[in-house]
Amino acid sequence: MKDNGKVTTHIHDGIATISFYHPKSNSLSKTLLKELAGTFDSLAKQKEAKVIVLRSEGDKTFCSGASFDELTAIKDTKTGKEFFMGFARLINAMRKCPKFIIARIQGKCAGGGVGLAAAADYTMASSEASVRLSELALGIGPFVVGPAIERKIGSTNFITMSIDAEWHDAFWAKSAGLFTKVFASIREVDEAVSKLAHKIAGCNPEAIEQLKKIFWHGTENWDKLLEERAEISGKLALSDFTKKYIQQFKSKK
After folding, report:
1. pLDDT at 31 over 60
2. Averaged confidence pLDDT in the chain
3. Taking the CA of residue 190 as centre, how many other CA atoms within 13 Å lie in the half-sphere pointing to its CB?
4. Where are the domains positioned within the chain?
5. 108 close to 125: Cβ distance less than 8 angstroms
6. Is 238 exposed, middle or buried (0-12, 13-18, 19+ CB in 10 A)?
7. At what angle do helices 77-96 and 30-44 cross, to 10 degrees?
8. Beta carbons of 176 and 153 less than 8 angstroms apart
9. N or C of the chain: less Cβ packing under 10 Å?
10. Confidence check: pLDDT of 253 > 60
11. What is the pTM for the complete model shown?
């Protein structure tokens, strides 16, 4: 479990906190993706959970995206599609969850991590939380997480992030609509997250459920859409370009 990371959950005062960890910069392995999606599905049915806070452990990186070790291990289109279906299932679980999801972003956020920030309903970040979509440089593309990100930041900003594959600071992310609020320190982020979560926990859950449906109106085709995108990513992950890039990247570490 240590190599694949871990997901922990606790509920207190109506606030369910999901925390994930991976020893390699909180990267997302297939095990983590499955556990996170399952946790959201489970919390969706638990009445004692009024609001959900998503966070990761550590103080430097919120999430570095897909696990390079597992990308390297992809040997055929079937396993490639299945790996990226982990992202599809997670985003869809967050989308369908009838509770508001607050994302707490403490540091760098790349690839699939940007997808998590976008799939949350309200995202609070520290000023150190820069964002990047590096998939094109990797030889793939932000296909599966793309719909969630584009929904939040619009086509122009999504195209910008997809093509230049550079880091954008937290204030750019806020102006683009990815982050709701940015704070000077993680302490201030935690205080704001706690205050909002407690406020939401006291609201009418039926009203929240209906608002959530309205917020995500127009995404009803995402089960099919994200599966199609996962298939594209799975095929591209087999390319010589991607495998060479990952080998070069890992050799620099």
Report:
1. yes
2. 95
3. 9
4. 6-186
5. no
6. middle
7. 30
8. yes
9. C
10. no
11. 0.95
CA pair distance 9, 7, nearest whole angstrom: 7
Q: Which two tokens stand for residue 62?
A: 């919120």
pLDDT digits (tens, 9 = 90+) for 139-160: 899 999 999 999 999 999 999 9
d(CA 239, CA 230): 15
Q: What is the helix (H) or strand (E) element at residue 101, kind and residue range?
A: strand 101-105
Q: What is d(CA 117, CA 205) in angstroms, rounded to the nearest whole number? A: 23
Dmax (CA) of the chain: 53
Contact 83, 71 (CB under 8 A): yes
Look at residues 189, 72, 185 and name the one whose alpha carbon lies nearest to residue 122: 189
CB 42 within 8 A of CB 16: no
Q: 6-186 maps to which CATH number?
A: 3.90.226.10
Three-state DSSP state, 26: coil
